[in-house]
Amino acid sequence: MKYRTFLVCACVFLASCNLESGEPKVNGRWYTPSQVQNGEKIYAKYCVECHKVQAQGTASWKERDQDGFYPPPPLNGTAHAWHHPMSILKKTIDEGGIPLGGRMPGFKEKLNEESKLAVISYFQNFWTDEIYTSWISRGGLN
Ligand code: HEC
User: Fold this and answer.
1) What is the pLDDT of residues 92-110, one digit of tens each?
2) Distance, CA 115 to ligand 1 centroid (Å)?
3) For the purposes of burial, counting CB atoms within 10 Å of the CB of 91, is it exposed (0-12), middle (13-18) or buried (19 or more)?
4) What CA–CA distances, in Å, run from 107 to 4, 38, 56, 96, 104?
5) pLDDT, tens digit, for every residue of 1-41?
6) Is the CB of 77 under 6 A from ligand 1?
């Protein structure tokens, strides 16, 4: 009997832990709706001025502007962002494109790991399932 009581308590305890940390993910993706919501705020504060609403970027992102720079590309799955695994996306956000002759500032000092993951989840949430699956099969989670 004692053992049984212990088991019941252990199960209830484990189930409640799971409920707290186990928010369901979006459609089998790596992130949760809360991460997307948090990412939306970060995006609005730091990224939207360049990458535009809903991560649509600049239509002519493939052509250099009059100053010889590439405009901010879409992050919504219609450009190249999905060619990069997570580690490179995080590095791009940390360091920006200025060290590579581009224009994007780095956000190392402003965004911690959690915030970077949230903002990535925000723009990935615009990716179609097809693009997301391609990203995964190219090792996107690396
Ligand atoms: C001042 C404008 C500007 C801001 C602000 C900015 N970006 Fe960028 N971003 C760019 C440009 C321009 C590029 C293309 C590379 C370059 O020129 O640096 C780029 C490239 C990227 C890429 C690589 C895309 C690819 O197709 O390879 C990612 C990812 C990215 N930005 C994410 C972000 C996120 C997330 C934020 C907000 C935290 C942000 N950017 C803020 C201008 C900006």
Assistant:
1) 999 999 999 999 999 999 9
2) 15
3) middle
4) 53, 16, 20, 7, 9
5) 555 554 444 544 444 444 446 899 998 999 999 999 999 99
6) no
